[in-house]
Design a protein that fits this description.
Blueprint (H helix, E strand, L loop, with lengths): L7 E4 L5 H12 L3 E6 L3 H12 L5 E5 L5 H15 L4 E4 L14 H29 L2 E6 L3 H4 L5 H21 L4 E8 L5 H4 L3 H10 L8 H12 L10 E4 L6
Parallel strand pairs: 1-2, 1-4, 2-3, 4-5, 5-6, 6-7
The structure holds NADP nicotinamide-adenine-dinucleotide phosphate.
NADP nicotinamide-adenine-dinucleotide phosphate (NAP) binds next to α1, β2, α4 and α7.
């Protein structure tokens, strides 16, 4: 019996990067995967096929995690298709970097909405069905930047710090119902999000990391697998870093 057999996972933002890595890893361990994308339709359909080939049930949903009504509809549709949701992974996120001096209100609002409000939207929508089941695992993808801040990313850091406060509060509210809520804080993970950085900056990041490399989506997915599974059944309200020792 595989670790996540008979479990359904709802995962936001899986068309690329870390989300895609999480979807593939959880499917390897038997999970059925409902996942979302926003603009990368072809990549989402490709992932859906890859997941099928692993012998699990999978479905790609076009859904904007930042929109409350869309999140509610997504949970309704997933329940109709999969019957239950055991694990929610809030992964969707964006960056719109800039020094505060030059940061526009739009840059601030859009990042807070896509990164933080999205986590509220999905968690709120999934709360009732998980309460009914009297179990569940919610995993929120934050960032080391939410713990220590980062020049040029005040909007992103604030959204990720907000996720940590939200995660701990939800863990306190829902623990008595056997619903766990944890946050995963990746460090420097090499995806399209980081591909926007120039090579010199990337090398500086790599050099500053004790393990001397950027992380991979799989490094993050391995931790999500653990938190999604019953192996972590006594762990809630925690923020676990996957950063090669960067934030030590
Ligand atoms: P990425 O390669 O840019 O992928 C982002 C994913 O999120 C895409 O699948 C995108 O979908 C989706 N997405 C964005 N906004 C969305 C929305 N409103 N609704 C639904 N889906 C949406 O990013 P990544 O590097 O994999 O990052 C994934 C998560 O890890 C983010 O929360 C990020 O903040 C966090 N993180 C990343 C790093 C890193 O070093 N890469 C470090 C710490 C934390 P479409 O392609 O369809 O638009």
């Amino acid at each position: 019996m595989k670790l996540l057999e008979n479990k359904t996972v709802l995962l936001t933002g899986a068309s690329r990067g870390i989300g895609r890595g999480i979807a593939l890893k959880l499917a390897d361990y038997g999970a059925n995967v409902a996942f979302t994308y926003l603009s990368s339709e072809a990549k989402a359909k490709e992932l859906e096929q890859e997941l099928f080939s692993k012998g699990v049930k999978a479905k790609a949903y076009h859904s904007d995690a930042a929109e409350n009504k869309a999140a509610e509809q997504l949970v309704t549709d997933t329940l109709a298709e999969f019957g239950k949701i055991d694990v929610l992974v809030n992964n969707a996120g964006i960056t719109k970097d800039g020094l505060l001096m030059r940061m526009s209100e739009e840059q601030w609002d859009s990042v807070i909405k896509a990164n933080l409000k999205s986590v509220f939207n999905l968690t709120k929508a999934i709360q009732r069905p998980m309460l009914k089941e009297r179990k569940g695992s919610i995993i929120n993808i934050t960032s080391v930047v939410g713990i220590r801040g980062n020049a040029g990313q005040s909007n992103y850091a604030a959204s990720k710090a907000g996720i940590i406060g939200f995660t701990k509060s939800v863990a306190l509210e829902l623990g008595s119902r056997n619903i766990r809520c944890n946050a995963v804080a990746p460090g420097f993970i090499e995806t399209e999000m980081t591909a926007a950085l120039d090579e010199k900056t990337v090398n500086q990041w790599r050099e500053s990391i004790p393990l001397k490399r950027g992380g991979t989506p799989e490094d993050v997915a391995n931790l999500v697998l653990f938190l999604a599974s019953d192996l972590s059944s006594y762990i809630t309200g925690q923020v676990v870093q996957v950063c090669g020792g960067m934030l030590t």
